[in-house]
Design brief:
Largest sheet: 10 strands, mixed
Structural class: mainly beta
Mean pLDDT: 86
Oligomer: single chain
Helix content: under 10%
Distance between the termini: 29 Å
Shape: globular
Order of helices and strands: EEEEEEEEEEEEEEEHEEH
Number of domains: 1
Number of strands: 17
Strand content: 35-45%
Number of helices: 2
Length: about 290
């Protein structure tokens, strides 16, 4: 994947390398959060078999147990992330079950003085199961730094729908991102074999070139989508008809469809993203999503 970058003159101090141990003053409290959940198939429906949460991460269950899909809403009570913060999420869908997870609101990445915030998302789907990871947008503010890792491990006949939308500041408030660090790493393992990997990196040195047409241009938001399912090929042409001009979708291999969208701002992105996700998932999005 190409490296993205944007322009700016505020270069008062270099951002630390993502993944490096942050130099956090002892007086600064850091956010720590972890959550884990496992769905199983029992009595003809998807049910919660295991659930744990600690620190700032909370999982809410708006519809209770025993429905398909089993719905969860993730909440970070810290209200955002900055340098040295860390979140860890582990989600599992057992054989024949369906777990769908969204977030209560957009996640905010604030200016850092102490290295990147870090977030890991580990997803496991057993044979015949399905897992949808549908978080709302990550808003990257000027001076923010985030290092994210997502790993999806699929058994035989397992399905998954993933989305990660990102917004660069709040354009309606006159905000522009001129200096930030963003690093996103996706890996998909199917029956023990690596079938998909994506690396998206925006370093501080990349921002001067981001206005080029071959990179972000005037886009202030983007989203990455991945569908792993037998019907992926059948969804490709309908998805392409829905996508805006600055977007692309490809069937990378049998049963694996990937798309990336660029948009002027968060509203324009969501206007394209919601119908695309509903097409790929063959279902309305959770109620926390609104246009």
């Amino acid at each position: 994947m190409p490296r993205f970058g944007l322009s700016g003159s505020d270069r008062s101090a270099p951002l630390p390398e993502a993944g490096a141990a942050p130099d956090v003053p002892a007086s600064l409290p850091r956010t720590r959060g972890a959550a884990a959940a496992r769905a199983i198939r029992r009595d003809g429906s998807s049910r919660l078999a295991r659930f744990r949460q600690e620190g700032s991460l909370k999982l809410l269950w708006p519809h209770g147990d025993g429905e398909d899909p089993l719905e969860a809403v993730l909440l970070n009570t810290a209200g955002g992330l900055t340098g040295g913060d860390r979140l860890d999420l582990h989600l599992s869908a057992g054989a024949g079950s369906w777990l769908r997870v969204s977030t209560q609101a957009a996640e905010r990445i604030y200016r850092t003085v102490s290295g990147p915030a870090e977030m890991t998302v580990d997803l496991q789907v057993e044979s015949g199961g399905r897992l949808d990871w549908l978080p709302q947008e990550t808003i990257l503010y000027d001076g923010g730094a985030i290092h994210r890792r997502l790993r999806l491990d699929l058994g035989s006949g397992a399905r998954a729908l993933l989305a990660e939308p990102v917004i660069l500041g709040r354009r309606a408030m006159g905000e522009r991102v001129r200096r930030a660090w963003f690093r996103d790493r996706w890996e998909v393992i199917r029956e023990g074999h690596l079938v998909f990997a994506d690396r998206l990196r925006i370093g501080e040195e990349d921002w001067p070139a981001a206005g080029a047409a071959a990179m972000l241009g005037d886009a202030g938001a983007w989203a990455s989508l991945l569908l792993v399912a037998p019907e992926a090929e059948a969804r490709l042409d309908p998805l392409r008809r829905l996508l805006p001009g600055r977007a692309g979708a490809s069937l990378l291999r049998e049963g694996l469809l990937f798309a990336r969208l660029l948009a002027e701002d968060g509203f324009a992105l969501r206007r394209s993203l919601i119908p695309a996700l509903e097409l790929l998932g063959n279902r309305a999005l959770p109620k926390v999503w609104r246009l």
